[in-house]
Amino acid sequence: MKKAMILWMALGLSACVSLSQDGANVKVVDTLDEVPGDCTEVGYQEAASADEVFASALASAEIELRNRAAEHGANLIRITKKRAEVLPLSGAVMGGMTYACQGFKGS
């Protein structure tokens, strides 16, 4: 039930999600090896989105995740969760550990 509610709430956001200026400076990586040594963990963030097309839901979830990371002072996200949800619409959940890295601009 909780997953369904999150995706239905995300549905309202997915159509109007856009990458913020600060979110554009957040780099997304997949492995711990890609995280520079001078980075400090900020915390875990997660975002969900729904769309008729899974790829669109996934892209919207990533945009929302980058925006949230930037709002919390991070400039890098290491993705640890990328999952499809199947409800009446396709959905995506993406999450990861966020980091603040010195002398580093993402994107």
Defining traits:
disordered N terminus, Lipoprotein, elongated, alpha+beta, 29% helix, four-stranded mixed sheet, Translation Initiation Factor IF3, 107 residues, signal
N/C terminus separation: 35 Å
Nearest-integer average pLDDT: 83
Largest sheet: 4 strands, mixed
Estimated structural class: alpha+beta
According to CATH, the fold-level topology is Translation Initiation Factor IF3
| Percent in helix | 25-40%
**Rg over CA atoms:** 14 Å
Describe the structure.
- Keywords: Signal.
- It comes from Bowmanella denitrificans.
- The chain is an alpha+beta fold and 107 residues long.
- It has a single domain, classed as Translation Initiation Factor IF3, CATH 3.30.110.
- The chain has a 4-stranded mixed β-sheet.
- The N terminus is likely disordered.
How would you sum up this structure in a few lines?
This protein has 107 residues and is α+β, with helices and mostly antiparallel strands. It has helices spanning 2-14, 54-71, and strands at residues 27-29, 39-51, 76-86, 90-101. The longest helix has 18 residues, at 54-71.
Outline the fold blueprint:
Blueprint: H1 2-14, E1 27-29, E2 39-51, H2 54-71, E3 76-86, E4 90-101
Parallel strand pairs: 1-3
Antiparallel strand pairs: 2-4, 3-4
